[in-house]
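[agent] plan:
  1. take the single chain provided in the ticket
  2. run structure prediction with default settings
  3. attach structure tokens to the ticket
  4. add a short note for the reviewer (M.T.)
[agent] executing step 1
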Amino acid sequence: MKRILVAGVSGAIGGALAAALLARDEESGEKSIVIGLCRDPLAVSEPLRSHSRLTLLAWNAEDERSPEAVVKALEKLVPAENGLDAFIYAAGLLHDGALFPEKRLEELQASSLARAFAVNATGFALLAQALLPWFRHRDFKRMVAISAKVGSIEDNHLGGWYAYRSSKAALNMLVRTLSVELPRRCKPIVCVALHPGTTDSALSEPFRQSLAQLQVHSAIETAENLLSVIEKLTPEDNGRFVSWDGSSLPW
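[agent] step 2 finished; step 3 output follows
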């Protein structure tokens, strides 16, 4: 993977993935280009923000016109005919201000559903649509959506978290549907949903006490786990829902 686009680099997992990709190159001597998307490039921490091989582009998952601006900027960095080797969607929204995981049906709000779907699902679909011309080259491509195990319909035994669960389930369906179409148009390619495991981040901070019994990884550890899975993907993995350790998860 030498030309990689990561959406959500201002978040813990997205930023760690970008940093891990760049560090990997320094160890191997390769010179990859990493394009990072986020709402506010200034929110990306140093020294990542000033890295010579990371280009940051403003992108808002809640703005359906934002992918058009990304495409215009990307064309100047990596022409479509050169293509991308990987697109990793690491943007995600669990809580923000008035939005918080619901414990009961009475807590569900239409605005929460709309925001969760916009960031966790719709943003991925619209970027995949916009980036399609960059995935038509003849080399092997990877399209990866960072999902969540709680988005599994079959594995839902606890209930609650309506907006987050539903939006991640929608993301999984988008991945599964893309995995049917993309090989017809962009072969060879793999499109998967990837569960990162429980990560120590701002997203999980409000639930620290309830996570005490779980295996919690640092953002760096999560990124290393995910890259290990991503780099081993083959066309035969297309359409899978994969956990951070490479095992399969139920849809």
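[agent] step 4 note for reviewer: Helices lie at 12-28, 66-77, 110-131, 162-186, 219-232.
[agent] ticket updated
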